[in-house]
Design a protein that fits this description.
- This protein is α+β, with helices and mostly antiparallel strands and 275 residues long.
- It has 5 helices and 15 strands.
- Strands 2, 3, 4, 5, 6, 7, 9, 10, 11, 12, 13, 14 and 15 form a 13-stranded mixed β-sheet that branches. The chain has a two-stranded parallel ribbon with strand order 1-8.
- It is globular and about 50 Å long.
- Bound molecules: 2-acetamido-2-deoxy-beta-D-glucopyranose.
- The site of 2-acetamido-2-deoxy-beta-D-glucopyranose has 7 residues, from loops.
Amino acid sequence: MVRKVLLIFALVQVVFGSDMAPWNYDDTMKWGDDYPFCDGNEQSPIDIKDAMEKEFDNLLSFSTNYMTCITGTLFNNGHTVQFNVDESEPSRLIFQGPLGSQPYKLLQFHLHWGSDSTKGSEHTLDGQAFPAEIHLVHVNASLDGPLGKRGDLAVVGLFIEVGENAKMAFQPLVEKLPSLKNKDDSTSITINMADILGGVEDFSKWTTYLGSLTTPGCNEIVTWINMEDPIKMAEEELKELRTLINSDKKPMVDNFRPPLELKDRKLYKNMPKAT
Ligand SMILES: *[C@@H]1O[C@H](CO)[C@@H](O)[C@H](O)[C@H]1NC(C)=O
């Protein structure tokens, strides 16, 4: 079991550890020069609009231990601040909804944000950008080969708006930021997922589509689930994020990829079952 976990971890690193060619957010349309998948037809993010209502057999579900404290490593990877769940942690799973019976295990989360609060999210809602977006990245818990096919990952995206977060959910993370100024700075941290997700008023309001990683290599292996209800972060906390330094030794801001065309894909909106 441990070996399998290590194997998956190594394979995930291959996909995410995209420092083969350096990249940044100056011209995201050029990513395809070094990372051909970025020019594909099933890319993320997208503008979320005109979703088709669809009834899914079961509610999107979280394992009962999901909304608890999780220990991991928080680090500056040169493009964002990311939290990697410790391998010793019991699996936190999501399943059902658009994922069917296949459980997906939480690996990491990270954020995207703007240089000011008029922008920062990757997905947009009817053309509207939010000041930030958080991505909870999950891997097919039964995966026994390399990452590389559609549906290998399930990412839950949440918009972040400016406001008082009743649970002070991001406070523990924000307090660590001064020690994570530069690429590869890292620290251990315990995050309460109940607080992070506590701001979601209605977990049945989401859309789903098939897309990609939003950073190079842009692999088209992601089932996206985008929550409609934004969560909140204080402007002061967003300001702290903007003090981080990226891999070009510049302020880590506007680390979002603008929306791409839906093209031939379908965007579904969960229609809660009549009870
Ligand atoms: C998850 O991985 C297993 C093992 O590779 C595979 O059989 C299954 O089809 C995958 N599930 C999805 C939804 O891709």
